[in-house]
């Protein structure tokens, strides 16, 4: 759907990369490759999305990641929230249709 240049907090400092948003996934790929693997989640794995100073945080059952330094934070956050809502609706409709 779209991608954005931003940073992810890792330890005590931000690491620059790209946030990719698709209909099924949220992914982050580091700009400078190291031993880190890209961060990849399906929308249904997220249990929360929180706005923070200069960015937003995603929460799963076992992890949290903070994304910061967006050119247009409001646009990005809105798209993240909408894609997450669409995934939940799709999941609920799929469960409902199978009954």
Descriptive report:
The chain is α+β, with helices and mostly antiparallel strands and 99 residues long. 25% of the residues lie in helices and 43% in strands. The chain has one helix and seven strands, in the order E-E-E-E-E-E-E-H. The chain has a seven-stranded antiparallel sheet with strand order 4-3-2-1-7-6-5, with helices on one face. The longest helix has 25 residues, at 73-97. It is globular and about 40 Å long. The termini are far apart.
Describe how the helices and strands are arranged.
Layout (H helix, E strand, L loop, with lengths): L1 E9 L2 E9 L3 E6 L8 E4 L5 E5 L2 E5 L4 E5 L4 H25 L2
Antiparallel strand pairs: 1-2, 1-7, 2-3, 3-4, 5-6, 6-7
What would the keywords be for this entry?
1 helix; 99 residues; alpha+beta; single chain; 7 strands
What is the overall shape? globular
Query: Structural class per helix/strand content?
Result: alpha+beta
The major β-sheet equals: 7 strands, antiparallel
The neighbouring-strand order within the major sheet is 4-3-2-1-7-6-5
Which sequence of SSEs, written as H and E, runs from N to C? EEEEEEEH
Oligomer state of the chains in this structure = single chain
Question: In angstroms, what is the radius of gyration?
Answer: 14 Å
Mean pLDDT: 89
Tally of DSSP helical segments: 1
N- to C-terminal separation?
A: 31 Å
Number of strands: 7
Strand content: 35-45%
List the uncertain runs: none
């Amino acid at each position: 759907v779209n991608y954005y240049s931003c940073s992810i907090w890792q330890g005590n400092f931000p690491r620059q990369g790209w946030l990719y948003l698709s209909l099924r996934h949220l992914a982050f790929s580091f700009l400078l490759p190291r031993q880190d693997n890209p961060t990849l989640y399906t929308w249904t794995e997220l249990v929360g999305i929180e706005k923070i100073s200069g960015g937003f945080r995603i929460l799963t059952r076992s992890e949290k990641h903070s994304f910061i330094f967006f050119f247009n934070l409001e646009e990005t956050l809105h798209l993240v929230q909408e894609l997450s809502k669409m995934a939940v609706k799709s999941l609920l409709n799929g469960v409902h249709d199978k009954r």
